[in-house]
């Protein structure tokens, strides 16, 4: 069974770190060989990743250079990019966070159940973007009332009286981006 890619990547980083540390200290390979008792050719192969690093080799080298071992051997970072999804329910709507950071805007998946609900328009600070993933979404913005289908998007200032909910008999899944500070989307493509 082979090593994990992150472990291999960490081992590959040892060679350039050794070379860099030695260069920063202004120590030649010959001087390092004399200080450690390790042959110049072994040190050279270690710095060029042609020799597998071992503690038997690394400990005398870092001691001779006067640097901590973790400066050369960093543990591989195992970063899980998945966002922990702890859904909450508010007014019968399930909110699933899609962004981890605390800044703005925030991303959510909303699952809005189908039910006969009278639209109750509300106003608050912020700016919202909606994208329909599945189902039909009824949106009221001021005196406008319309239905959005899968793949359709809307954006609006939340100071405009608004409401949205499921249209039809089924629930609707919506991607929502919301910023309290009123950030506006930045388009990187020319307008048609």
List keywords for this structure.
single chain; 192 residues; alpha+beta; 434 Repressor (Amino-terminal Domain); Jelly Rolls; 2 domains; 6-stranded antiparallel beta sheet; 3-stranded antiparallel beta sheet; 5 helices; 9 strands; 27% strand; disordered N terminus
Write the topology of this structure.
Blueprint: H1 5-25, H2 29-36, H3 40-47, H4 55-65, H5 69-72, E1 88-90, E2 93-97, E3 106-112, E4 127-134, E5 137-141, E6 144-148, E7 153-157, E8 162-166, E9 172-179
Antiparallel strand pairs: 1-2, 2-3, 3-9, 4-7, 4-9, 5-6, 5-8
Please provide a written account of the structure.
There is one protein chain. The protein has 192 residues and is α+β, with helices and mostly antiparallel strands. Strands 1-2-3-9-4-7 form a 6-stranded antiparallel sheet, with no helix packed on it. It has a 3-stranded antiparallel sheet with strand order 6-5-8, with no helix packed on it. β5 (137-141) and β6 (144-148) form a beta hairpin. It contains 5 helices and 9 strands. Mean pLDDT is 83; it is low at 1-5 and 182-189. The protein is 27% helix and 27% strand. The longest helix is centred in the N-terminal third of the chain and has 21 residues, at 5-25. It has 2 domains: 5-72, lambda repressor-like DNA-binding domains (434 Repressor (Amino-terminal Domain)); 88-179, Jelly Rolls.
């Amino acid at each position: 069974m082979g090593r994990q890619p992150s472990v291999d990547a960490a081992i590959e980083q040892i060679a350039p770190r050794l070379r860099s540390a030695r260069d920063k200290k202004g120590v030649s390979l010959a001087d390092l060989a004399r200080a450690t008792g390790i042959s110049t050719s072994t040190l050279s192969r270690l710095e060029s990743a042609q020799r597998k690093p071992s503690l038997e080799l690394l400990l005398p080298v870092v001691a001779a250079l006067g640097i901590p071992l973790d400066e050369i051997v960093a543990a591989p970072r195992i970063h899980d990019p998945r966002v922990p999804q702890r859904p909450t329910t508010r007014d019968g709507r399930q909110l699933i966070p899609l962004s981890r950071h605390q800044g703005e805007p925030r991303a959510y998946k909303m699952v809005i159940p189908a039910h006969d609900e009278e639209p109750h328009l509300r106003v608050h600070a912020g700016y919202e973007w909606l994208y329909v993933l599945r189902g039909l979404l009824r949106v009221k913005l001021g005196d406008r009332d319309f239905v959005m289908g899968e793949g359709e998007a809307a954006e609006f200032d939340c100071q405009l009286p608004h409401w949205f909910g499921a249209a039809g008999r089924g629930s609707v899944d919506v991607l929502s981006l919301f910023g309290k500070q009123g950030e506006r989307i930045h388009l990187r493509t020319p307008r048609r």
